[in-house]
Amino acid sequence: MRKLLTLLTILISNLIADNAQAQLKSYIGISAGLSTPTGNFAKSDYGPIYHENNKAGYAKNGITMGVDGAYYFYKNLAIAGNLTFQDQGGLSKKDVENLAAGYTDGFAVDNSTVTANKRYNSLNALAGPQYSFVFNKVILDVRAMAGVIKSLSTPETRVDLEDDPTHTFYQRSSKSASFAYGAGLGLRYYISKKLGVVLRGNYINSDGIKITNENRNINAGRLVTKQPISLIQTTLGLTLSL
Which first-to-last residue range defines the signal peptide (predicted)? Predict the structure, then answer.
């Protein structure tokens, strides 16, 4: 095992040494693609009574688009960053029915009605170190990132218990921000000295944005006060060397 680790270390060191021969050019680019929720953010289960899944986000696959770039300060080492918008959908009819059934059980009432509006829309602003491996016209970017997720909106719900307006409560749409971190891989192929196409995959995670609830006089049933967010984003775009 020790010999294998030593061999891998030597191979990686040699690969880095072979690639660190010339100063790479900084670049900027645009891209768009698919944003896929993962973990609790993607879950759509209410959970059993008294053990509700308060972290389930009911998020959907959606689009992402944004700008990306890197400044090379020493050969293959750069500070990279991206700014992206993503839409992760809203609550479906099935989701609303799932929530209503859960609240009916949780509050021990005969019936409940859930109405929903708005969607998961957010901005990500992330930056961090990047190392690039060069293989002729193809460049492999490896990066780590940290920054912020700024929510523009989240699904908002109104819950009516047994058609009694005194028992109506709300989960409001959130516009809060939260620390986020992640990692990414990118493949750039240059079709000219300056212009290239790029395929990227990024993983982004946040412990959660703050969620506000109104008129929750009894903390029975599902109660979301913080929504974790985790995403895998796959994009295709254009890049321009500076």
Answer: 1-22
Mind listing the pLDDT tens digit for each residue in 182-223? 999 999 999 998 999 999 999 999 999 999 999 988 888 899
Say if 139 falls within a structural domain. yes
Residue 6 located in a structural domain: no
Does residue 95 contact residue 114 with C-beta atoms inside 8 Å? no
Q: Please say whether the beta carbons of 183 and 203 come within 8 A.
A: yes
228: helix, strand or coil:
strand
What CATH code is carried by the domain that includes residue 30?
2.40.160.20
Q: Is pLDDT of 162 > 80?
A: yes
CA dihedral of residues 157, 163, 169, 170 (deg, nearest 10): 20
Identify the DSSP state of 190: E
Angle (CA) 123 127 133, round 5°: 125
